[in-house]
Write a structure and sequence with these properties.
Blueprint: E1 2-7, E2 16-20, E3 26-29, H1 41-46, E4 57-59, H2 65-68, H3 71-76, E5 83-85, H4 87-117, H5 129-135, E6 139-141, E7 148-151, E8 154-160, E9 168-175, E10 182-187, E11 210-214, H6 229-242, E12 246-250, H7 256-269, E13 277-281, H8 283-294, H9 301-309, E14 319-322, H10 325-333, E15 338-342, H11 352-359, E16 366-369, H12 378-383, E17 388-391, E18 394-397, E19 401-404, H13 414-421, E20 431-435, H14 439-451, E21 457-458, E22 465-467
Parallel strand pairs: 3-4, 4-5, 5-6, 10-11, 11-20, 12-15, 12-16, 13-14, 13-15, 16-19, 20-21
Antiparallel strand pairs: 1-2, 1-22, 2-3, 7-8, 8-9, 9-10, 17-18
Helix pairs in contact: 4-5, 4-8
């Protein structure tokens, strides 16, 4: 077996990890979009590094766009094989990939207005909404834990890992032709927190010979775990009641938005939420919330107990889901204090950019960043203290209050990663490959893992191939 990483290698986005068996079969683990403002991204999103027609199987760990967002282009460029994923992941991809196609079309249309004016060649989108719907026909649902045979002596299973609804680690099993022994590789995908707000905690991995492990927070701990509901209430009061401003929360449409809405629902039920209006301004979030309602079996015991008291955990009288662009624009024109939750979480696309454009220079407003942002993205710049940002070809002064918390993060920190990996038999483990992290984070996690006895820790660069004997 050979392993090559073509994405999320010494970076966070664009997850693509290729396995090639001794018989020549190819298994792609994830097919994600490179996100952020890295100048290399357009090229990386256009050229996979391999021929899509050469791929036999695709196994998807979860629906986030940095793991699934290039599937429509993969199919458009010739991949005809099955795409295996959990049913919840398929349900989410059914709304997220067409939404991504819409963003691709809209971004190119906006860019082409200026290119046409300047006499430059027009661009084409990576893929369209039509391409996104077309790729959905190749998805095949698989159950957690069950082994699924791809061919003789090649099989896989998906184990829930608590990062996102439907997410899981992928374990691949094959027979080494030279020795006849079974070999196993685990790909963690994105590892969830050990005590998630809503989902069940990550389940342990079985014994494996090789490990591909994410490292997003490999160099840090979640400092804001003490940011509780009372702190959220205080921030709402200071912004919306005392300063009569708006609390703007950029949030991924799937996962983070539902967690925040659930927190506000809880505050409302216990009469802690000030009497202000809350707007979820993302059509994708609205659809995603409906999918969350369909899969309540995925939620933890604490959330299940809450459901016994409140059968509608994503709804309360002050909450409004915004659909039309006109309603979204009206929020920017309104002087009334409110909470606006809008996508995308990294602030690189979607309606949040318009809310940022209209509110970032008002010192009465607060921007609450609640998740990871790739460093080159707009969200990453603000997370690291940028005082000026460029948006819609204009330079804006950051006068609004900016708060960054990690208590809503869906990624495990380094202590939680090590806790998740602890059950592995290090005596069997031949090598560990760290992916999905900035290089500094990967070096830090590698050092910690080395001190704990993990063997042969490697940080593959894009396109590097390793033989798994």
């Amino acid at each position: 077996m050979e392993f090559t990483s073509f994405g999320a290698a010494r970076t966070v986005t664009g997850s693509k990890h290729l396995l090639r068996t001794e018989s020549g079969k190819t298994v792609l683990l994830d097919c994600g979009l490179f996100q952020g403002r890295d100048p290399r991204n357009p090229t990386l999103n256009t050229h996979f590094g391999f021929d899509p027609r050469s791929i036999d199987f695709l196994i998807l760990s979860h629906a986030h766009i940095d793991h699934s967002g290039l599937i429509p282009k993969l199919v458009k460029d010739g991949f005809t094989g099955p795409i295996f994923a959990s049913q919840a992941t398929i349900d989410l991809c059914g709304i997220m990939l067409p939404d991504s196609g819409h963003i691709q079309e809209a971004d190119v249309a906006f860019s082409n207005k200026f290119r046409k004016r300047d006499g430059r060649a027009l661009k084409k989108p990576l893929y369209t909404v039509k391409d996104a719907y077309a790729c959905l026909k190749q998805f095949k649902a698989v159950s957690f834990y069950d082994w699924h045979e791809l061919e003789e002596d090649l099989a896989f299973q998906i184990i829930p890992n608590g990062h996102l609804l439907g997410s899981g680690a992928v374990v691949v099993s094959w027979k080494d032709q030279a020795s006849g022994a079974e070999r196993r590789l685990a790909y963690t995908g994105d590892i969830g927190r050990p005590e998630p707000n809503m989902l069940k905690a990550p389940m342990p991995l079985p014994e494996v010979d090789y490990l591909i492990c994410e490292s997003t927070y490999g160099d840090r701990l979640h400092d804001n775990q003490d940011f509780g509901l009372s702190d959220l209430v205080q921030l709402i009061r200071e912004t919306c009641v005392e300063r009569q401003g708006k609390l703007i929360i950029p949030a991924f449409s799937i996962g983070r938005t539902q967690e925040i809405v659930f927190a506000l629902d809880y505050l409302h039920n216990f009469e802690m939420l000030p009497p202000i209006q809350v707007y979820v301004d993302s059509p994708l979030s609205t659809k995603g919330t409906e999918i969350y309602r369909k899969h309540l079996e995925a939620f933890n015991a604490q959330f299940q107990r809450y459901l016994a008291q409140d059968a509608t955990p994503f709804a309360f009288p002050q909450l409004h889901f915004i659909e039309s662009a006109d309603e979204s624009k009206a929020l920017n024109d309104s002087p009334d204090p409110c909470i606006i939750i809008s996508a995308s979480g990294m602030m690189e696309a979607g309606r949040i950019r318009h809310h940022m454009f209209n509110h970032i220079e008002n010192p009465n407003n607060t921007l609450l960043i609640v998740g990871y942002s790739e460093p080159s993205s707009l969200g990453g710049q603000l997370t690291h203290g940028a005082r000026t940002i460029r948006l819609f070809r204009q330079d804006l002064q950051v006068k609004a209050r900016v708060e960054v918390i990690q208590s809503y993060s869906g990624h495990a920190d380094y202590r939680e990663i090590l806790h998740y990996l602890h059950p592995l038999n290090q005596g069997r483990l031949k090598a560990v490959f760290l992916v999905h992290g900035d290089y500094e984070s990967q070096l830090a996690l590698a050092s910690r893992m080395h001190r704990q006895g993990y063997p042969n820790i490697e940080i593959p660069d894009r396109g590097q191939t390793r033989t798994l004997a």
